[in-house]
Amino acid sequence: MEGVQLNLISKDRLDKMASMEKIRMILEEVKRGKIVVLESGLTPEEEAKLIELTMLEIDHDKFVGIEVESYPQKSRGFLGKIFGSSGGRLTVIGPANRLKTLQKSDEFIEALVSLGDR
Amino acid sequence: MSVIVKIKKKFSFLFKWFLKKDRMKIGIYGPPNAGKTTLANRILRDWTGDVMGSVSEVPHETRRARLREGVKIEVNGKSVMLDIVDTPGLATKIDFHEFMKFGLSEEEAKKRAKEATEGVIEAIKWLDDLDGVLMVMDATEDPYTQVNVTIVGNIEARNIPLLIVANKIDLPNASPARIKAAFPQHPVVPVSALKGMNIDTLYREIAEKFG
Description:
The complex is a heterodimer.
Chain A: E1 6-9, H1 11-16, H2 19-31, E2 35-38, H3 44-57, E3 66-70, H4 78-83, E4 91-95, E5 99-104, E6 109-113
Parallel strand pairs in A: 1-2
Antiparallel strand pairs in A: 2-4, 3-4, 5-6
Helix pairs in contact in A: 2-3
Chain B: H1 3-10, H2 12-18, E1 23-29, H3 36-47, E2 66-75, E3 78-86, H4 96-100, H5 106-126, E4 132-138, H6 146-158, E5 162-167, H7 176-182, E6 188-190, H8 199-210
Parallel strand pairs in B: 1-3, 1-4, 4-5, 5-6
Antiparallel strand pairs in B: 2-3
């Protein structure tokens, strides 16, 4: 059956992984053409690291980068800044040539996954 | 992460409030073609008579970060001394075919794409050395892009002051209100860096926020 593979990673599994472990896992899967769905997402620092490592992996022929779909972080108050965790929200990551954002708002994301390369 | 680093990070906003510098290093961030270098040129032209760099309709014209030190902005008796870093546009993907649509040869496009990837990495690295950020967004575009969300999230995580510049308000379909709605927790200043529209308000906000 032809299709695109989706890997849905639970929060429990993500919580057990180190940042670099998560980022490497995401990049390896996405480079294989898979779509990765993270239940609890990434922290902003992890997102920046993911972009940084993606840039190193771009080969201009087979892999041109990633498309990331996630919601803005909820703003934290004074106490939240001190005591709160900085975990992310639901995030979908895929190869840029397969995953395309159609519409995005604070609480809703519409995306298109294509079977072909472009 | 060590406990000391974690504590330092958690309380950095308090340290910064007490230990305010007399010279602030400000990064100009945003996606490609938002008008970052146009804004940097406008600020430099108005306050130093100089320019930062060239601008182009081809994305990723700025592929190396540029630093201009000692830019003094004075508004209503309040002054601030800035070191301004114009950073390359941040992106999650760089496809050389996009550059060929602007007439670049395949070789030129691939070279530009490679330099652009290095530029993105450089822009991310700069985030750790800044005292404040001017985040430039194209007011004619949807502000809910991953690049915008990631940059704002990183600035918030580092607890450094952020001013969002809703650029290109001279264009008919510009909507700074959309940006304000997307990032209500941060001040948004609508400007046209190209035409200089509302630029005095931006300077007043810069003096307030970073001064």
